[in-house]
Structure prediction request, 122 residues.
Amino acid sequence: VQLQASGGGLVQPGGSLRLSCVVPELTLDYTNIGWFRQAPGKEREFVAAVIWSGTRSSTGDSVKGRFSISRDNAKGTVFLQMNNLKPEDTAVYYCTADRNPYYETPFSPTYWGQGTQVTVSS
Prediction:
């Protein structure tokens, strides 16, 4: 599964960003998509995931109420909308995927894309 993430950048605290992940085979074989992040010196952290049908999703505790995930299967793209960003959201964000007709937690992806840097700073 090819995964191409984009949309990262520098934003001030309280601002918003929307990350995109282009997945050419998004509609094939029950492709579920998730986002993870990793900050320097910290463990990799689950951010959000959405099932292949778009009918179920989940977000990590640290971003709940601020981040949301959605997918546009017609465009082959998954989005991560990030609002009210905080300095602690600074990290490299990775788009990931697995192929499973069922939505399992914790989300354990098989495929990883390259990361996109998000920096929250004034």
